[in-house]
Amino acid sequence: MASNVNPTVRRRRLGMELRKLREDKGMTAEQVAERLLVSQSKISRLENGRRSISQRDVRDLCDVYEVEDRRLVDSLMQMAKDSRQQGWWHAFGDIPYSVYIGLETDAASLRTYEPLVIPGLLQTPEYAQSLVRGAWPETAPVDVEKRVQVRMHRQKRLHETENSNPEIGPLRLWAVIDEAALRRHVGDAQLMIRQLEFLIEQSEKPHVTVQVMPFSMGAHPGVNGQYAILEFPDASDSTVVYIEGVTSDLYLEKANDVQKYSVMYEHLRAQAHNVDQTRQFIAQIIEDFAGKGK
Q1: Which neighbouring-strand residues pair with 213?
Q2: Backbone angles phi, psi at 144, to 5 degrees
Q3: How many Å apart are CA 24 and CA 11, to the nearest integer?
Q4: How far is the C-alpha of 71 from the C-alpha of 160, rounded, in Å?
Q5: Tens digit of each residue's pLDDT, the chain (294 residues)
Q6: Mind spelling out the 3-state secondary structure of the chain?
Q7: In this structure, how many other beta carbons lie within 10 angstroms of the beta carbon of residue 121?
């Protein structure tokens, strides 16, 4: 991808600008759709950044909103052009969670809770391969390998010297992982030992924090399932809560929703083992796997 243009983030930013113009004009999405002879759902998709925006779309919307500032129109047109470029992940073909990858690529920080598996950014290639095979048993081998390669490429955000977006710096990752994810056999015992050793190694990076939620904690705010909170370096980009689904994903951006999940995450961090306890806990599980492998 030329320069460091991220089409996913450009679409979101452009969508927010277009929504602001509509609201400043005092128009509803339905009224705009009627003027342009398009569906209301198209206007909504353009504004939430889920749909590619053409320069013609921007021109037509600016006409409807009577935008007289030529510099603003030119800026929005350029954003539309950038938003249609391809991100690095497009080289791997059709990736089901490409919207999330686009957001993660430009995020400054990521807070995630994983109840069942090791987070993708902290997986070894062998663990990732075994996990994809088990989770999607009908996936062709070539597609399994493609997913693993994408996962490994995403991990470059955690390495400052290999960072795919040096303007942002390494991703600040905070991961709370349920004990179940550490004890679940993904592959054989030796594979799990290497994975858990890698997890400890990654947790020693200054911008990576790993905490384990032990079974002994009982019920806690994470029992509702996996989610991630992405924050961005540009204040104009709203924080996003990402919830992964089997056939579709959910992206929450309303301030009230983000606040609820953020508060819930603070409770998770407070109830989980601290960093030192977590490393000791993982080391003990490694010994358990080593005993099983004999």
Answers
A1: 178
A2: -60, -45
A3: 20
A4: 36
A5: 334 556 777 787 788 888 889 999 899 999 998 998 888 888 888 887 766 788 888 899 999 999 888 888 888 888 888 777 766 766 776 777 778 888 898 899 999 999 999 999 999 999 999 999 999 898 899 999 999 999 999 999 998 654 455 667 899 999 999 999 999 999 999 999 999 999 999 999 999 999 999 999 999 988 889 999 999 887 777 899 999 887 778 888 889 999 999 999 999 999 999 999 999 999 999 999 998 765
A6: CCCCCCHHHHHHHHHHHHHHHHHHHCCCHHHHHHHHCCCHHHHHHHHHCCCCCCHHHHHHHHHHCCCCCHHHHHHHHHHHHHHCCCCHHHHHCCCCCHHHHHHHHHCCEEEEEECCCCCHHHCCHHHHHHHHHHHCCCCCHHHHHHHHHHHHHHHHHHCHHHCCCCCCCCCEEEEEEEHHHHHCCCCCHHHHHHHHHHHHHHHCCCCEEEEEECHHHCCCHHHHCCEEEEECCCCCCCCEEEECCCCCCEEECCHHHHHHHHHHHHHHHHHCCCHHHHHHHHHHHHHHHHHHCC
A7: 20
| Residue whose structure tokens are 């679409």 | 11
Q: Residue 107: CB partners within 8 Å, gap ≥ 6? A: 157, 168, 171, 230, 231, 232
